[in-house]
Amino acid sequence: MSPASKQDIVHQLQRDILRLQGSRPSASGKIDLGLGPVLEAFPGNSFPTGAIHELISHRPENAAATSGFTAGLISGLMRSGGACVWVSCTRRIYPPGLKAFGIEPDHIVFMDMRNEKEVLWATEEALKCDGLSAVVGEIRELSMIASRRYQLAVEQSRVTGLIVRNQPRNVLPTAAVARWQVTHLPSIVEDGMPGPGAPRWNIELTRIRNGVPGSWQTEWRAGRFCFETPPAQVFLEGLQRKTG
Fold first, then answer.
1. Residue 170 domain-assigned?
2. Which of 68, 177, 185, 186 sits at 20 to 30 Å (Cα–Cα) from 199?
């Protein structure tokens, strides 16, 4: 057997293992969420679609930052033309504000439920709908059993589920492929420009199956994520230019 054939077999086995574990990277070049350096944290350098992602915010002031980052993600997921379902019992998102993320509010089906039990059920049913690009469920507590049901649903439908958990009492292990934590950062106001600057966040990937956790700073500007270069990298790049 040639070395090339062995390498092909290894790559196929890796893809099969990821699929069996519930991580389904997007097809190359098909879905670009503009996550830049974050992609290096994912297996295959590709954002896992057809999977469940948890987004945790422990403090009220970070709930808006988490919603903003979520809107940025679904903006990219909806570029293929599919709709999104957003389920909650205490809706935190302001629909007209989604236009800042390139999303028309009438392309999202908002489901306002009476309690969290209904949110859990409606989110699972939405995740089974293969015609959707994404489902957002605002759920404070997520058990291992519920998360497994969600993951099984998306493995069949290939829908990407984003579970937004504001001030959860417990953050225990779940079947989600990835767990994010978003905190707000002060905006940077350009000289001579009125009003507040662009939304700016610290994004931490605290858990990623078969990947590498990490932390990044970004802001939403001109309809996309704009990632900041770490100070150490800026120094090294400047040093290389001087010595080059």
1. yes
2. 177
SS3 10: helix
User: Three-state SS for 26?
Assistant: coil
H or E element at residue 9: helix 3-20
**102-107 LR contacts (CB < 8 Å, sep 24+):** 102/75, 102/223, 103/71, 103/74, 103/75, 103/78, 107/78, 107/83
**Backbone phi, psi, residue 9, to 5°:** -65, -40
Is residue 53 domain-resident? yes
Q: Which CATH number goes with the domain that contains 238?
A: 3.40.50.300
Strands 48-49 and 52-57: unpaired
- Phi first, then psi: give them for residue 140, nearest 5 degrees: -70, -45
- Residue 171's domain spans which residues? 47-243
Q: What is the DSSP string of 40-77?
A: GGSGGGS-EESSEEEEEE-SGGGHHHHHHHHHHHHHHH
pLDDT digits (tens, 9 = 90+) for 110-165: 999 999 999 999 999 999 998 899 999 999 999 999 999 999 999 999 999 999 99
179 bridge partner residues: 54, 207
Q: For residue 55, is it within any domain?
A: yes
| 191 pLDDT tier (thresholds 50, 70, 90) | low
